[in-house]
């Protein structure tokens, strides 16, 4: 094992982090990260890991490079394993080589985990292949911001200008007029296509194409700022036809996801695939029961029930956690009929070797009841419902009215996730939020415990509210809001589709 891992996080899309980089983040004692390393990567850090921000943004340095080097050496000598997370690739204009030299001089071991560099990824997401057989067979990566302490420039503008290579400039937006002037004065055709890609691979990506003699003026007019990649060459002419990423329907739309973090990943990923900027604001925390003796007792009596009804993925997970702890498996359900309130719950059961006998056409308790009654549930039928300690009582009450004997088995508790609303309020104030999504009545209640209704009302109607179904929408109405977006299909995929259509 190394003392320090220099990890390339890629240019921003969370999916571009390497598998190896993710594994190291999950095991490191300390994570030291940069401004350009997506904050979402920090969710991979193990519980209790120390997180240290050392970013550099437009001359505003939280820590200068020499102090970052000292920090890495000092903390590594304490015996801590360090994941040094850097935007892009550590060795491509990432100053990773300087950090590696400092570690080596201090007698410490290090390992480099390469990352996807912005000079390739940002153009690719903007429809620009940096090499193409019909255009160029080479590419040159160039810094647009040289070390100001150097006595002599490392640039050879005559070579750049007369080469047929694609030129990719990093960190050069401020110097764009100088770059264009030097290339033209050294012989590059003023009509050479030039592209700028800002925040490449992120949901906020934007791009433009001009030509060498006009690009500086047009970039200034359109407000292009750092961080932007500059691409010079005929390959930029492919931008319009190959620009796949910026055609995504939700590109740049800010969506707040209020689900518990354990449940949010699939929903968030679906939205990201459509280009959305997902802001996780989990309002619910899933906690196991402090005393699981009742669950263990129920396992020994499972064969006395006719039906077992699961109402959530969390219920499946927590119930089977005790099944596993007891050294048992899905065979304990032999002869029992199984119901799932929705497709995600059904899928969770299938993964545990149980195919539900009944999944309702509409995923609310009322439809579960009618479907079960059609399947013979009634007088004398014994039903077990593993669920949250506190939940809606419609399902058990209606089943009891039908004559069934119902036992509610609490297998987990939901609590308020007391994450402060400061970051969310800042995003609302900055106009970065377009939608807030609610997937249950409890997400609504907890959201307004954390963010007062009066605060959200300040940003209406610019911010639109989406609810998974009518019951959640009714809870939202009790706070003085209406759900402008509701799917016909009361599921997470249905909610995602409704947002895309909106």
UniProtKB/TrEMBL annotation:
Classification via InterPro entries: 4pyrrol_Mease (IPR000878), 4pyrrol_Methylase_sf (IPR035996), 4pyrrol_syn_uPrphyn_synt_sf (IPR036108), 4pyrrol_synth_uPrphyn_synth (IPR003754), 4pyrrole_Mease_sub1 (IPR014777), 4pyrrole_Mease_sub2 (IPR014776), CobA/CysG_C (IPR006366), Siro_Cobalamin_biosynth (IPR050161)
Enzyme class: transferase
Pathway(s) it belongs to: Porphyrin-containing compound metabolism; siroheme biosynthesis; precorrin-2 from uroporphyrinogen III: step 1/1; Cofactor biosynthesis; adenosylcobalamin biosynthesis; precorrin-2 from uroporphyrinogen III: step 1/1
GO molecular function, one term: uroporphyrin-III C-methyltransferase activity
Highest taxon above the source species: Bacteria
CDD domains recorded: HemD (cd06578), SUMT (cd11642)
Tetrapyrrole methylase domain ranges (all copies): 4-215
EC number in record: 2.1.1.107
PROSITE patterns: SUMT_1
UniProt domain Tetrapyrrole biosynthesis uroporphyrinogen III synthase: residue ranges: 267-496
Family: Belongs to the precorrin methyltransferase family.
Identification of the protein by name: uroporphyrinogen-III C-methyltransferase
Organism: Desulfobaculum bizertense DSM 18034
């Amino acid at each position: 094992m190394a003392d320090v891992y220099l990890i390339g996080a890629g240019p921003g899309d969370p999916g571009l982090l390497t598998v190896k980089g993710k594994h190291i983040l999950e095991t490191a004692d300390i994570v030291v990260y940069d401004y350009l390393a997506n904050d979402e990567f920090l969710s991979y850090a193990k519980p209790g890991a120390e997180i240290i921000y050392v970013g550099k943004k437009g001359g505003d340095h939280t820590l200068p490079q020499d102090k970052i080097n000292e920090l890495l050496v000092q903390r590594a000598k304490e015996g801590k394993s360090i994941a040094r997370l850097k935007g892009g690739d550590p060795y491509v204009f990432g100053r990773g080589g300087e950090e590696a030299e400092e570690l080596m001089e201090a007698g410490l071991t290090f390992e480099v985990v390469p990352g996807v560099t912005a000079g390739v990824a940002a153009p690719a997401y903007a429809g620009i292949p940096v090499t193409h057989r019909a255009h160029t067979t080479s590419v040159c990566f160039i810094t647009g911001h040289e070390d100001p302490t150097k006595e002599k420039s490392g640039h050879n503008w005559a070579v750049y200008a007369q080469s047929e290579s694609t030129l990719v400039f990093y960190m050069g937006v401020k110097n764009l007029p100088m770059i264009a002037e030097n290339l033209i004065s050294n012989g590059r055709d003023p009509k050479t296509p030039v592209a700028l890609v800002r925040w490449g691979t992120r949901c906020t990506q934007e791009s433009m194409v001009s030509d060498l003699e006009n690009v500086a003026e047009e970039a200034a007019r359109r407000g292009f700022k750092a961080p932007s990649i500059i691409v010079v060459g005929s390959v930029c002419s492919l931008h319009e036809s190959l620009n796949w990423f910026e055609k995504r329907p939700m590109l740049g739309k800010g969506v707040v996801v209020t689900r518990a973090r354990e449940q949010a990943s699939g929903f968030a990923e679906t939205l990201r695939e459509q280009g959305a900027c997902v802001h996780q604001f989990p309002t619910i925390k899933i906690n196991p029961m402090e005393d699981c003796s009742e669950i263990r007792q129920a396992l020994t009596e499972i064969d006395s029930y006719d039906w077992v009804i699961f109402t959530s993925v969390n219920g499946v997970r927590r119930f089977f956690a005790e099944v596993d702890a007891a050294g048992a498996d899905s065979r304990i359900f032999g002869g029992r009929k199984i119901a799932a309130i929705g497709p995600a719950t059904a899928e969770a059961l299938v993964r545990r070797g149980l195919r539900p006998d009944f999944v309702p056409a509409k995923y609310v308790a009322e439809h579960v009841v009618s479907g079960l009654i059609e399947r013979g549930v009634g007088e004398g039928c014994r039903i077990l419902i593993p669920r949250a300690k506190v939940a809606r009582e419609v399902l058990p009450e209606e089943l009891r009215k039908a004559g069934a004997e119902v036992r509610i088995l609490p297998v987990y508790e939901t609590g308020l996730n007391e994450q402060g609303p400061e970051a969310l309020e800042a995003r609302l104030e900055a106009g970065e939020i377009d939608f807030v999504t609610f997937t249950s009545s409890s997400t609504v209640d907890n959201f307004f415990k954390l963010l007062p209704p009066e605060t959200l009302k300040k940003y209406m109607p610019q911010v639109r509210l989406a609810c998974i179904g009518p019951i959640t929408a009714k809870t939202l109405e009790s706070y003085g809001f209406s759900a402008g977006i509701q799917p016909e299909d009361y599921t997470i995929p249905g909610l995602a589709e409704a947002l895309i259509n909106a």
